[in-house]
Design brief:
about 350 residues, alpha/beta, 8-stranded parallel beta barrel, 3-stranded antiparallel β-sheet, about 40% helix, about 15% strand, globular, binds flavin mononucleotide
Length: about 350
């Protein structure tokens, strides 16, 4: 029903408008008595496999990737969809509008998206309140909530660590794990933080803060699919040195190789990160490489181009412990997380 009735209707709207309209609509109908019960019945995974990792108990292996619910506005709804964990953010210390519209584009021929959102978000303070509210309202709910943190656009790279520290400290009481995002292509200069020295400084700094806590929380690093072998090796060295818990692989790609979408259309869309099917293999290769080099003690969350249980299994076979989806949810609809979590 989603692909043949709902999706064609929503695809009439601009992608960003469709995103918020759909989510707000679903959020609103959940107030009708019985609707939550019904949706849970339809979407909940059958016999999901829970897993214990990094000291956390994940009710299943399928998570919502960062960027979909940046401000934690749809936690209840995502829980109903059957996700075992949700990564909110990327959040920055201060609210920011992100890049000018339009900044999100569909590539239906490739089952892909291009975005240059630029970390539009309402800032860390309201996010802390929303997660806290959810956890207080549903103290028994096993949903794991990770926080993906970034820097404000106006913060220079030299001062970036301070931004990550602010969000880390504020979110510490409510988030279950953290993801350090230095791999989004839409904040100028951000990806240079993936270089050896700045990355080592940033992660050592955060891990030091973490180690001061009575109960430190897992910190993971989100990486790009476009890294060279040297960059991967540098990152592996830093992960081992700083003893962070693992990596999220991968973010969107800046490449435009082998797409079915017309070159003219791609040119008119312009810059941005490409997600969905075209990033699938690159992300799987990165997962394989990191698993091989890191051994089995580090956690890898596999993300990029998952739109079926076969795709999800491919990521697990490559070495991922957990998977996440974003673009697949847009093309396949809200039943996808439950379907994946029933299979892997
Ligand atoms: C519109 C959009 C916004 C995104 N925003 C973020 C973000 O804020 N932070 C982040 O780490 N990744 C962000 N991502 C990347 C996704 O989390 C994911 O890593 C990437 O899209 C690959 O997965 P997919 O092919 O399942 O979409 C965004 C992706 C899309 C499509």
């Amino acid at each position: 029903m989603y692909k043949f009735i709902v999706r064609p209707f929503f695809f009439l709207y601009s992608p960003e408008k469709a995103h918020y309209t759909t989510m707000d609509l679903l959020h609103t109908i959940c107030y009708i008595p019985g609707v939550k019960w019904l949706l849970k019945k339809i979407w909940a995974p059958k016999n999901p496999k829970s897993i214990s990792l990094m000291g956390l108990n994940f009710p299943n292996k399928v998570g919502l990737a960062a960027g979909f619910d940046k401000d934690g506005r749809y936690l209840e709804l995502m829980d109903l969809m059957g996700f075992g964990f949700i990564e909110v953010g990327t959040v920055t210390p201060l609210p920011q509008l992100g890049n000018p519209l339009p900044r999100l584009f569909r590539l239906p021929k490739d089952q892909a998206l291009i975005n240059r959102m630029g970390f539009n978000n309402r800032g860390v303070d309201p996010l802390v309140k929303r997660i806290d509210l959810f956890k207080k309202k549903y103290p028994e709910n096993p949903l794991i909530i990770g926080a993906n943190i970034g820097k404000n656009k106006n913060t220079t790279n030299e001062k970036a660590t301070q931004d990550y520290r602010i969000s880390f400290e504020k979110l510490f009481p409510v988030a279950d794990y953290f993801v350090v995002n230095v791999s989004s292509p839409n904040t100028p200069g951000l990806r240079t933080l993936q270089e050896k020295e700045p990355l080592n400084d940033l992660l050592s700094n955060l891990q030091y803060l973490n180690d001061q806590k009575v109960n430190p929380k897992p910190i993971l690093l989100k990486i790009a699919p476009d890294l060279t072998v040297e960059q991967c090796d540098d990152i592996i060295e830093i992960v081992l040195n700083t003893k962070i818990s693992g990596i999220v692989a991968t973010n969107t790609t800046i490449t435009r190789d082998n797409l079915l979408t017309d070159t003219k259309d791609l040119e008119s869309i312009g810059l941005g990160g490409l997600s969905g099917k075209p990033v699938k293999d690159a992300s799987t290769k990165i997962i394989q490489y990191f698993r091989q080099k890191l051994g089995k003690d580090f956690v890898i969350i596999g993300v990029g181009g998952i739109s079926s249980s076969e795709d999800a299994q491919e990521k697990i076979n490559a070495g991922a412990d957990l998977v996440q989806i974003y673009t697949g949810l847009i093309y396949e609809g809200p039943a996808l997380p439950g379907i994946l979590a029933s299979k892997i």
